[in-house]
Amino acid sequence: MVSSSEVNAVIEGIGHEIRRKIILLLAEKGPMKYSSLLSELSIQSGVLNYHLSKMESLLDKDEDGTYSLSEMGILAYKLLEFLRQEIRKPQRLERRPPSPWTFLSEAVSSFLDLCTNPRRAFTHKGAGAVLVSLSLGGLLFLLSSLLGTRAIMEVLFIFLGTFALVLGLSAGIYAIRPSTTLFLTSCLRAQLPELILLLIRLALFLNLVRVGELEYSLLLIGIRYVVQPALALWTLILLLFATKESTNLDLSKSFVVVILTILVLRMVAKLLGFSQEIHVITF
Asked: Which residues contact 209 (CB under 8 A, 6 or more apart)?
């Protein structure tokens, strides 16, 4: 059994770079004379003498002055080898699956930030944020289908047009190639204002809101000139930060890309006769 003093001797022996080199030299090249150690280590004799004095229990010295490792020295060498092998091994970090609470928390935060903190909304990039993106996108296309084939085709065109224009303008103007998947999920979340407008129009279309004729006319005017412009501004803000986070462009460059995207989409939507009632950018 190794005593505590022997353990201390081993620790002291491997605790300095020069002593570690002496142990490795004697273990890998065999017994060596004092002059050979001095030559191999390229140090002054005084320095070598000091370290040899600290390693007395780890070394054996023959009558002719040849140094070799003692049993404790061999133990120190084995410990060094073990440590070297462990350092060389690739470290495998334990990956713990995210807890349901983490997933739910990110999903809720991702959605709420769209309403309260657009600057942070698109920094969420985990599974919870992806779920929100897919849910909003699915609802958008499902609800638009209730208004007919033309409505769903228009919604699909606006979404794909936004997606393609942002990617194309980022690459064409600033030579930036953003992550397609990342921007796809961000772009889906940025459709929340479009989804809200669609819900409002759908409620009116299905007569879920029962008011008088005058109130109904005032409601339409309010939607057209108050709600829709506000939703359009919200969409611009969401697209701005979605572009910034997905492309790594700064805010000013992201603003240029988003403004050009909206202008092109408005022009094309007008040429194609898109409905002004179900798209926030065509008010």
From this structure: 203, 216, 219
| pLDDT confidence tier of residue 2, bands split at 50, 70 and 90 | low
From the number of C-beta atoms within 10 Å of its C-beta (0-12, 13-18, 19+), residue 274 rates as: buried
Q: What is the CATH number of the domain that holds 52?
A: 1.10.10.10
Measuring CA to CA, which residue among 111, 128, 282 is closest to residue 189?
111
Amino acid occupying residue 142: L
Count of domains in the chain?
A: 2
pTM: 0.63
Token readout for 178 is 């953003």
The model's pLDDT over 28-62, given as tens digits with 9 standing for 90+, comes to: 888 888 888 888 888 888 888 888 888 888 888 88
Token pair, residue 185, equals 């999920």
Q: Which two tokens stand for residue 9?
A: 């001797």
Residue-number span of the structural domain to which 239 is assigned? 100-282
Q: Using DSSP, state whether 249 is helix, strand or coil.
A: coil
For tokens 């890309």, name the residue. Answer: 257
Residues 283, 201: Cα–Cα separation, whole Å: 14
Clarify whether residues 149 and 270 are in a common domain: yes
Give yes or no: residues 214 and 247 share one domain: yes
